[in-house]
Write a structure and sequence with these properties.
Layout (H helix, E strand, L loop, with lengths): L30 H11 L21 H4 L4 H14 L8 H14 L14 H4 L13 H13 L7 H15 L9 E2 L21 H9 L5 H8 L6 E2 L9 E2 L10 H6 L12 H7 L2 H10 L5 H17 L10 E2 L22 H9 L4 H7 L8
Antiparallel strand pairs: 1-4, 2-3
Helix pairs in contact: 3-7, 3-14, 4-7, 6-15, 8-11, 9-12, 9-13
Length: 376
């Protein structure tokens, strides 16, 4: 496998204990730092199932809004919800693309990389976006850049926006988790290290496990994160089957993905990534597919563990965790029950209206809604 980057193996007797995230290596010295430490350590949930009761204290630009670091994000989430929700209650293609965008921006970090991670470089670097593993993200990137431009006077940054879009998307997707959301990341326009986000050639389970161990993520964390393929479609692994979903309910954040990957038969019209099959058949990760796919407990267990794994991923390379601001309160309530809809087409009218308001060109705005999604 000469085409794969060299990986420093971290296997040891303690390799699967919970590691201190590097951004807190000098200690959790603030309330938000302690919250992050506790949620990653398992003594506090990284999933917030409380009801939204936050109201922006004033209009954008007002002193009341300016003095509340979360206020502008409440306005942004309103815009995002309108383009992330389909009329049938499922999450839109743009929402699903935003899930992948968050992964690919944060995942470009390892314990030996020296830099990279959740720094907005996938939006700000003209080189990073053109890597083969980022195929299909160009259009959602254009949407994000339009939002960034529209709200630039309120001093939002790309790194925050990318991770915020992910978290809004997951809670808009029916059954998805309401993940702890932190604001205050630092931007970088420098292209992050290459070879740290798995591409279409990632077909070896042990390779993937080691790749993510070097991001301080355990094998079970990796399986939890891979479950986001429940809202994925593939376009580039096999172009002749472009658009095929990775499970039978691509607009719903459910655990069908885990059961279908391990089933002897693919669902009609569906597609299996070799990377998913490899993990499902690797000793260190196969049992997690069973646990997350359980019809009775899987959804609850997976949502909680996905939230924990994603908070860790979203803070890779972040060195100011103690100084971030907790803005989970602006997110919508989680959709905890959902019946699969009939195949009702989604009207583009509301999406176009909001996308135009955030000052995108009409071409990029509408094409972004059709952006391909595949996390690997």
């Amino acid at each position: 496998m000469a085409f794969l980057p060299d990986i420093v193996s971290r296997q040891s007797a303690s390799s699967d204990t919970t590691e201190i995230i590097p951004g807190l290596s000098d200690g959790a010295t603030t309330e938000v730092g302690r919250q992050v430490r506790d949620c990653l350590g398992g003594t506090q949930s990284c999933e917030d199932n409380s009801t939204k009761n936050y109201t922006a204290p004033g209009p954008l630009g007002s002193s009341e809004c300016t003095n509340d670091a979360c206020c502008v994000w409440d306005y942004i989430q309103r815009d995002l919800v309108q383009i992330f929700q389909s009329l049938d209650g499922t999450c839109s293609r743009l929402a699903r693309s935003s899930v992948r965008l968050g992964f690919h921006d944060a995942g470009t970090w390892s314990t030996t990389s020296g830099y990279g991670g959740a720094d907005g470089s996938l939006l700000l670097s003209s080189d990073e976006i053109n890597r083969f593993e980022n195929n299909g993200l160009q259009q959602v990137r254009s949407t994000a850049l339009g939002i960034l431009d529209s709200y630039s006077q309120y001093e939002i940054v790309a790194a925050d926006l990318v991770q915020f879009m992910h978290n809004v998307a997951t809670v808009v997707c029916p059954l998805g988790p309401r993940i702890v959301t932190l604001i205050g990341l630092n931007d970088s326009s420098v292209a992050n290290p290459s070879g740290l986000v798995p591409g279409n050639n990632a077909t070896d389970g042990e390779y993937l496990i080691e790749l993510f161990r070097n991001k301080t993520l355990k094998p079970r964390d990796l399986v939890a994160l891979v479950g986001a393929h429940t809202v994925g479609q593939q376009y580039f692994v096999d172009p002749s089957r472009a658009g095929q979903p990775l499970d039978s309910t691509p607009g719903v954040w459910d655990v069908d993905f885990y059961r279908e990957v391990t089933s002897s038969n693919s669902h009609p019209g569906g597609f299996r990534l070799s990377s998913d099959e490899a993990l499902a058949n690797t000793d260190e990760t196969s049992s997690s597919f069973t646990a997350f796919g359980d019809r009775n407990t899987g959804q609850t267990v997976w949502n909680a563990e996905y939230a924990t794994a994603y908070v860790r991923l979203s803070l890779l390379g972040v060195d100011n965790i103690n100084h971030l601001t907790h803005c989970t309160k602006v997110l919508l309530d989680a959709v905890t029950s959902f019946s699969s809809p009939s195949s009702t087409p989604t009207s583009p009218s509301s999406s176009l209206k909001i996308l135009r308001r955030i000052s995108l060109t009409s071409v990029f705005a509408w094409v972004a809604l059709l952006a391909p999604v595949s996390l690997f």
